Amino acid sequence: MSDNDDVPFNRNFPLNPGIVEEVRPGVRRVLCDNPSPFTFTGTVSYVVGKGNVAIIDPGPDNEAHAAALLDAVRGETVSHILVTHTHRDHSPNTARVKQATGATVYAEGPHRASRPRFESERHNPESGADRDFAPDVRIAHGDVIEGAGWRLEAVATPGHTANHLAFAWPERKFNFVGDHVMGWSTSIVAPPDGSMIDYMDSLDRLAAREEDLYFSGHGPEIPDGPRFVRFLIRHRKAREASILHRLAKGEADIPTMVRAIYIGIDPRLTTAAGYSVLAHLEDLVARGVVATDGDPVITGTYKMANA
Predict the structure, then answer these.
(1) How many other C-beta atoms lie within 10 A of the C-beta of residue 50?
(2) Could you tell me which CATH number the domain at 236-304 has?
(3) Rounded to an integer, what distance in angstroms lies between the CA atom of residue 60 and that of residue 39?
(4) Whether the Cβ atoms of residue 151 and residue 168 lie closer than 8 Å to each other
(5) Would you tell me how many other CB atoms lie within 10 Å of the CB of residue 224?
(6) What is the DSSP string of 193-236?
(7) Ramachandran category for residue 247: left, alpha or beta (phi over 0 → left; psi -120 to 50 → alpha)
(8) How buried is 53 (Cβ within 10 angstroms: 0-12 exposed, 13-18 middle, 19+ buried)?
(9) Residues 6+ apart with CB under 8 A from 244
(10) Long-range pairs for 293-300: beta carbons < 8 A, 24 or more residues apart
(11) How far apart are CA 226 and CA 207, in angstroms?
């Protein structure tokens, strides 16, 4: 999004789909050919370890990508499949890879919303959720998954989705952060699937950890991860300030706020921007800073609580 000049994004990611790249010893990545305004050049799957390996995020329902991943681990044993979250660009290929390898699937749990849906909200089947996914083993914050020569710790990072996990490799100071932190763009937080309150708490949790090299679900690796996270926190606080600045001028609906805040946005991202504004408003209403009639929903009108 064009207004993100305050965050040091890196959109230089020359990896081609289907190619296996060893980005660090013990970490390989394979790009799926599913580019879009939301996925950048596509979803990145990771292979952790050598000989006995784990695959993180097998990607979308894409046979060619599954074949490329299986090719990458030819002659090796895949013991674990780890899934950061249940969006359709990350988890559906799990079934193919599990069938081919017999690996055990680990994740926080099936897809769920961050909060109950309000009566006035229509269910959007195009939210991108993979509602068919269920892990073999459900894991929670602090759980450790290990294999030959690698040890990953689950880090609860809800916000982008309620069931989002990062997988830290503390000994190597690596963190596989899924879509919670991306080097090329901000993450989408779209209620009720996502929650800005949870998202900000999860950023704080990552910033407080020791891991400093982040491997993301899309785009290049992020060096000095906690510093980058602090940029994201500042950016979100600036976005909140922009919303409050607009509401200080008077009552407004979300499309009006999007036009005021996201100057020159790619039109394909306008809906997503609206949900991002809603996520901030939901937080502001919960804190009593902003008021709305009824539930804070995408079609609502908002004003300063003291207005």
Answers:
(1) 15
(2) 1.10.10.10
(3) 11
(4) no
(5) 12
(6) T--HHHHHHHHHHHHTSS--EEEESSSS-EESHHHHHHHHHHHH
(7) alpha
(8) buried
(9) 284, 289, 290, 304
(10) 294/120, 295/118, 295/119, 295/120, 295/121, 297/118, 297/120, 297/121, 298/121, 298/254, 298/274, 299/120, 299/253, 299/254, 300/253, 300/254
(11) 4
End-to-end CA distance of the chain: 31
Q: Which long-range contacts (CB under 8 A, 24 or more apart) does 33-36 make?
A: 33/62, 33/64, 33/65, 34/59, 34/60, 34/62, 34/65, 34/89
- Spatial distance between the Cα atoms of 114 and 191, rounded to a whole number of angstroms: 7
pLDDT tens for the chain, 307 residues long, are: 334 458 999 999 999 999 999 999 999 999 999 999 999 999 999 999 999 999 999 999 999 999 999 999 999 999 999 999 999 999 999 999 999 999 999 999 999 999 998 888 876 644 699 999 999 999 999 999 999 999 999 999 999 999 999 999 999 999 999 999 999 999 999 999 999 999 999 999 999 999 999 999 999 999 999 999 999 999 999 999 999 999 999 999 999 999 999 999 989 999 999 999 999 999 999 999 999 999 999 999 999 999 7
Instruction: Give the gyration radius of the chain's Cα atoms.
Output: 19
Tell me how long the chain is. 307
What is the CB neighbour count within 10 angstroms for residue 8? 12
Give the CA distances from residue 76 to residues 18, 71, 72, 101, 110, in Å, rounded to whole numbers and listed in that order: 18, 10, 9, 10, 28
Q: How far apart are CA 89 and CA 95, in angstroms?
A: 13
User: Structural domain boundaries of the chain?
Assistant: 19-233, 236-304
**Which architecture characterizes domain 19-233 according to CATH?**
4-Layer Sandwich (3.60)
